[in-house]
Amino acid sequence: MPQPNDLSRSLVALDQNSTIIAVIEMSQSSxxxxxxxxxxxxxxxxxxxxxxxxxxxxxxxxxxxxxxxxRHAIGTLDRHAKRTP
Length: 85
Fold this sequence. Notes:
This protein is an alpha+beta fold. It has one domain. It is built from two helices and three strands; from the N terminus they run βββαα. It has a three-stranded antiparallel sheet, covered by helices on one side. The longest helix has 18 residues, at 52-69. The radius of gyration is 15 Å and the shape is flat.
């Protein structure tokens, strides 16, 4: 008998030193994006127009900022970014 998917459990450990965590609150009029970036003490947040292009540009900018601060994490962050469609 196949086991049901348990989506409440992660199969991979979260590496906080090389993972950008973003939370997006979406409404029809605006999107509020907050993030935790590896190696950066501040927790950035930004209010955007509802636009996937603007969201992706913001996430890329945050990734570039994290990479510039964390030179040792370049390979890991770049590998994850290349998997993002």
